[in-house]
Amino acid sequence: MRILRQLFLSVIVLIGAVQVATAEPHRVLLLHSFGPHFPPWNTITTKFREELRKQSPHPLDLYEASLQDERFGDAEYEPTFVDYLQGLFAKRDLNLVVAVGAPAARFFLRNRSALFPTVPLIIAGANVRALGDVALTSNDTIVSLEFDQSWLIEGILRILPETTDIAVAIGNSPLEKFWAKDLRSSFERFSGRVTFHWWNELSFEEMMRSARELPPRSAIYYGTVRVDAHGEPQEEDRVFQRLREIAQVPLFSYIDSHFGEGIVGGPLLSSQQVARESAAIAVRVLAGGPPGSIKTPPIGLSTPRYDWRELQRWGISESNLPPGSAVYFREATIWQKYRIEIMAICAAILLQAALISWLIYEHRRRHMAEVLARDQMAELQRMDRLATAAELSASIAHEVNQPLTGISTLASAALHWLTRGKPDPEKMRAALTQILEASHSASELVTSVRAMFAKERAKREPLDINLKIRSVLGVLAVEMQKDRIEVRLQLDPSLPHVDGDRVQIQQVLVNLVKNAIEAMHGEQTRVLCIRTSLAQPDVVNVSVQDTGCGMDDAIRDQVFRPLVTTKANGMGMGLAICHSIITSHKGRIWASAALNKGTIFQFELAAHAARHTRDALAAQNPSVALLES
Predict the structure, then answer these.
(1) CA neighbor of 487 nearest in space, from 540, 550, 551, 547
(2) 214: burial class by Cβ within 10 Å (0-12, 13-18, 19+)?
(3) What 3-state DSSP class applies to 588?
(4) Rounded to the nearest 10 degrees, what angle do helices 574-584 and 502-519 cross at?
(5) Chain centroid offset of residue 384 CA
(6) What b/e sequence results for 451-460 when a residue is b if at least 16 CB atoms lie within 10 Å of its CB, and e otherwise?
(7) Which of 11, 266, 295, 425 could form an SS bridge with 155, CB 3.0 to 4.6 Å?
(8) Reduced to 3 states, what is the DSSP secondary structure of residue 46?
(9) Residue 287 carries which DSSP code?
(10) Are 128 and 59 in contact (CB under 8 A)?
(11) Model confidence over 373-420: pLDDT tens digits?
């Protein structure tokens, strides 16, 4: 039984589908007021066709016809147009007429008895007042528009409170004249606040010229221009397109057909709503519903909506918009477009910054550790030198003390013998002999200590003094950085090599540079200047100048002597050693006061070629060697 019931339902559905497929399409006539290309009816018509095909369950056959005389209010050719429609549908049953706009509705209602007395009529997108004295029948229904157009001026003045002039762009057809009169009446209450410029009696060119001449703080209210004052039809909204190109003031309108194409926005009529409701009524009428019983409330202005691009163009703040306004076409910000990319870049930058900070911290920590290690090493060396010197001093004192004690004892004995009156010559001779031997022993001890510190004859070789200076500065770079010392080099690149011992010359440079560094401790200006030059054709001069506190003339004359020092913890041996080394190289070293502040230490060495020349002359003439010595 259940199987039979399902089979029966399937057959019914199949029969219904076959009937729908084989039924004739519903014929619908779209009657245009001025033509198929006049706004805003062309927008409503396009959307109506889409909605009707979407909502209708039956096939459709749509026809379109346009009134031409209604542009000018001339009914001379109206009978001819009636004959055309009668002939077009003489052999076709028309199911529905949709009049788009008030002019088309008036035409059909006037000629209904001659055209299609029983065909239902739907009037789409018209104001009841625009129909005039033509009455609707039970076979007619209307999707009407009803709103107070003064609200649009309120909206303009709300978002642009400094507006002083408003141009009203409207045409000069009979219908537009009707609405121009109505607008004048509605806008009368704003006459004390703004100046209205009415363009309904202007030609297209005059409208464009007036648009260019509008003063600042003006606006244009576009009410559609279908026919200008010269009777020229303005299809495809030619006036609006041109105004959008040349106008230097914002544009407003009452319907959304140009929303997103140049108008700022505001409370607008929805062409989509008109088309959708008209299509819904058409589906009901085609299904057999009586048109007169279908009543819909008039369509008014929608919630205010604005074009974000136009707000930006004219500098209109969103805070001026009415509450509940919707803003469309808002461009995404850089953050909204590239949020992930920006976050990734920021993360990379932060990571890189963290790595750089860590590297700087590590570099500084290592630098401080290196400085500390060098300081500790220098202190250890100093302590080692002091300990060695102490041990050496104790050893020398211990060894020298014995012969000195013997000398003292013997001398005391000799004096005692002399005081007895009769000295014994033999005893005196023995005592004096022992004193002499003790003195020789002390002299040999001192000589052995001196021999312990004496060096073998150094190996001489050609040296690049400039290169040696740079090498020493590299070794002491950390110490100079620690004391924030500025180094200025004035090295003569054409200097010849000098003949000397590499280690000893380096020791001289190290001593002079370190003395200069220590001399500038606590000074505001710390500049170390090292110069090299050719003092004579065969003599190289090296100068080390500091900006320290300097030294007295008395000290400067004795500073190269052993144990003479200007430093609190100095041993007075460094400059003495330097003097010894330079002297052993047959050069000379001296100190002098700087011009402004500080001390200049200089030494001179013979050039390598000159040294060989003198050695050769000394070999040939011993007197030369004697003079050199």
Answers:
(1) 547
(2) middle
(3) strand
(4) 150
(5) 59
(6) eeeeeeeeee
(7) 266
(8) helix
(9) T
(10) no
(11) 888 777 767 665 665 555 556 555 544 654 566 677 667 777 776 776
User: Are the C-beta atoms of 591 and 553 separated by less than 8 Å?
Assistant: no
Residue 221: in which H helix or E strand, if any?
Answer: strand 218-222
**CA–CA dist 257, 376 (Å, integer):** 88
Tokens 């609006």 belong to residue: 240
pLDDT at res. 612: 47
d(Cα 215, Cα 550) in Å, to the nearest integer?
82
What does the alpha-carbon distance between residue 625 and residue 212 come to, in Å, rounded to a whole number? 109
Asked whether the beta carbons of 85 and 119 are under 8 A apart, the reply is no
C-alpha distances in angstroms, 293 versus 29, 123, 244, 296, 583?
Answer: 21, 14, 43, 10, 132
Separation of alpha carbons 532 and 233, rounded Å: 98
Domains of the chain are 11-144 (3.40.50.2300), 150-268+301-328 (3.40.50.2300), 339-453 (1.10.287.130), 461-628 (3.30.565.10)
Q: How far is it, in rounded angstroms, from Cα 170 to Cα 201? A: 9
- Residue 361 CA to residue 379 CA, distance in Å, equals 26
DSSP string, 223-259: ---SB-TT--B-GGGHHHHHHHHH-SS-EEESBGGGB
**List of E strands, 102-151:** 121-126, 140-144
CA distances from residue 308 to 248, 312, 566 in whole angstroms, order as listed:
17, 6, 83
Q: Give residues with Cβ within 8 angstroms of 561, minimum separation 6.
A: 572, 576
**Hey, is 493 helix, strand or coil?**
coil
Tell me the DSSP string of 413-441: HHHHHHHTSS--HHHHHHHHHHHHHHHHH
Residue 527 structure tokens: 């500049």
Q: Reduced to 3 states, what is the DSSP secondary structure of residue 516?
A: helix
Q: 160-185: b or e for each residue (b if 16 or more CB lie within 10 Å)?
A: beebebbbbbbbbbebbbebbeebee
State residue 221 phi and psi, 5-degree precision.
-100, 115
Question: Nearest-5° angle of CA 357, CA 363, CA 369?
Answer: 135
In this prediction, residue 6 carries a pLDDT of: 63
291's enclosing H/E stretch is: none
Q: Comparing C-alpha atoms, which of 143, 81, 147, 182 is closest to residue 302? A: 147
Q: Supply 50's token pair.
A: 């889409």
pTM for the full model? 0.55
Whole-angstrom Cα distance, residue 582 to residue 505?
A: 8
Determine contact, residues 505/545, Cβ cutoff 8 Å. Answer: no
**Which residue type, as a one-letter code, is found at position 320?**
N
Each residue of 535-551: pLDDT tens digit? Answer: 888 899 999 989 888 88
Sheet holding 96-100, edge to edge: 60-66, 26-32, 96-100, 121-126, 140-144
Percentage of residues in the chain with pLDDT exceeding 90?
39
pLDDT at 397: 59
